UniProtKB/TrEMBL annotation:
Residues 449-496 form the LysM domain. Keywords: Hydrolase, Metal-binding, Metalloprotease, Protease, Signal, Zinc. Residues 26-49 are annotated as: Disordered. One of its GO terms (molecular function) is metallopeptidase activity. It comes from the Bacteria. Its cofactor is Zn(2+). It comes from Sphingorhabdus arenilitoris. InterPro entries: LysM, Mito/Outer_Membr_Metalloprot, Peptidase_M48. It holds the Pfam family Peptidase_M48. This is M48 family metalloprotease.
Length: 499
């Protein structure tokens, strides 16, 4: 999370661009995946409008020695789709995000995060996951999704991206009842969340086809899906969640285990090819930033620490965090929350800040909240208020804005949503404190390193070099796509994470 004055929630332009993915130049037909229709002028315009907002959401472009490599691979796989005849028809962005994600939007815009590039164990795997996302665009899946969710309804739902995700005109109560995470800023979900199983399988098939056409091993996508499933399990364990839960990219691409097998079987329909380009991929990603960028804050277990803003807080056990460009998203079985700042700068007027925070969530709909209460937490002036909002199932939730004054010109707040009468976030509210200069100085970035396996190296010895204080072996094996019975070969290369 970076300090920003930009609104917490996306406006209507992105919702429109993402959900009207566009099948044609304004005609009614939707091109089939087998006979892809070229990028239309309308799609180019839509993509161009959404592109800068996506960059902002995901920490901006990651300008690094790896960028040119990722752009080249992305354009090469995208051109296999037939959406454009030249690589210049596509814009590939390498995102500075610690989230495992990749996606593509109409207009020839393709995205991959540095975290997902790091998880890939070869150039072919990275090309495969990008090909899958391009496949969604080639098959005009967003256009098909739009036809079951009218644009008027999407934009009518208080003007937030929650409306786009819900795909109905449920109003404030429905959106709040669905949970804060529905509209907390994960822009890529706008392009993938509502894809059906059939559409996901079609995108897998297209990704495999593009791999084969580009000269890669077509089974690479299956291996990438397997690594992603393992990493998802580790992420869940690290957050204290049920390892069977599926967050982030995997949550929008359901049933990863089934898809691994299906993709492997379908790859057999293409000419056998063993080209993976692991060595060149490893050489390209060696030394890349891994995990959180300290400039945006870091997640360490259940703690969030921001060295530049000099703050720290702790979330309850069993709750996971996702650090986006404008907020920290917190979710668990007992409730959901955001940690962020208002789009409008803090001027010392606590009442205005609380009103603005509620308005950012409710839009033009009125929310009645309690009298603003005041206290101190770890020496910080605190002010907070709660609104009770109905759920779609007849119950009610408490929506709380819990704000902290860090200075007369800077404030941050939690926006939390939990069943009325429950209090899952009380300890989290009390955990916020300032970091000392020495504490902030100890926060260091992690780096991805490629190492050669020595004669005496074991999974355990290499895992012990991982720059984490828990789940070292599990992290090492997921990062390298290794199963529990995998054997190391002296002279081979593996990935580790160091400071």
């Amino acid at each position: 999370m970076k300090y920003t004055k930009m609104a917490l929630f996306m406006g209507a332009s992105l919702a429109a661009a993402s959900c009207t993915g566009g099948g044609s130049d304004g005609g009614g037909g939707v091109a089939s995946a087998s006979t892809p229709q070229a990028i239309s002028q309308k799609e180019k315009q839509q993509g161009a409008e959404a592109h800068p907002q996506i960059l902002n959401e995901f920490g901006g472009s990651y300008e690094s020695p790896q960028t040119a490599y990722v752009v080249r691979v992305g354009k090469n796989i995208a051109v296999q789709s037939g959406l454009g005849n030249a690589q210049s028809d596509f814009t590939v962005s390498f995102l500075n995000s610690p989230v495992n994600n990749a996606f593509a939007i109409p207009g020839g815009y393709i995205y991959i995060t540095r975290q997902l590039a790091a998880l890939c164990n070869s150039e072919a795997e990275m090309a495969g996951v990008l090909g899958h996302e391009v496949g969604h665009v080639a098959a005009r899946h967003s256009e098909k999704r739009r036809k079951s969710s009218t644009l008027a309804g999407i934009l009518g739902a208080v003007g937030t991206i929650g409306g786009a995700l819900l795909g109905d005109n449920s109003g404030l109560a429905g959106i709040l009842g669905a949970g804060l995470k529905q509209y907390s800023g994960t822009v890529a979900q706008l392009f993938t969340l509502r894809y059906s199983r059939k559409q996901e399988e079609e995108a897998d098939d297209l990704g495999i086809r593009y791999l084969s056409k580009a000269g890669y091993d077509p089974t690479a996508l299956s291996d990438m899906l397997s690594s992603l499933a393992m990493q998802t399990t580790v992420d869940a364990q690290a957050a204290g969640r049920d390892a069977r839960s599926i967050p982030e990219w995997a949550s929008t691409h359901p049933d990863p285990a089934r898809r691994v097998v299906r993709a492997a079987n379908n790859a057999k329909a293409f000419a056998a090819n063993t080209v993976r380009k692991q060595d060149s991929h490893f050489a390209a990603i060696d030394g890349m930033l891994y995990g959180d960028d300290p400039k945006q804050g870091v997640i360490e277990g259940q703690n969030f620490l921001h060295p530049d803003l000099r703050l720290k807080f702790t979330v309850p056990n069993g709750y996971g965090m996702q650090n986006t460009n404008r907020s920290v998203n917190i979710s668990g079985n007992g409730g959901q929350a955001l940690f962020t700042t208002n789009a409008q700068a803090y001027t010392g007027d606590q009442s205005a800040y609380i009103a603005s925070a509620f308005k950012e969530i409710a839009g033009d709909q009125q929310v009645s909240y309690s009298e603003i209460r005041k206290t101190t937490v770890n020496g910080l002036p605190v002010f907070y208020a709660t609104a009770t909002v109905p759920t779609q199932k007849g119950g009610s939730n408490d929506l709380t804005i819990f704000a902290y004054e860090f200075s007369k010109s800077q404030a941050f707040h939690f926006a939390t949503l939990a069943p009325s009468g429950s209090s899952p976030f009380d300890a989290m509210y009390q955990s916020v404190r300032r970091l000392s200069a020495s504490e902030a100085g100890e926060i260091k970035p992690r780096k991805l390193r490629i190492v050669t396996v020595g004669r005496n190296d074991t999974v355990t010895s290499l895992s012990n070099r991982m720059a984490y204080n828990n789940l070292q072996k599990e992290r090492f094996m997921a990062l390298n796509g290794m199963r529990s019975d995998a054997a190391l070969t002296a002279g081979s290369k593996v990935k580790i994470v160091t400071y």
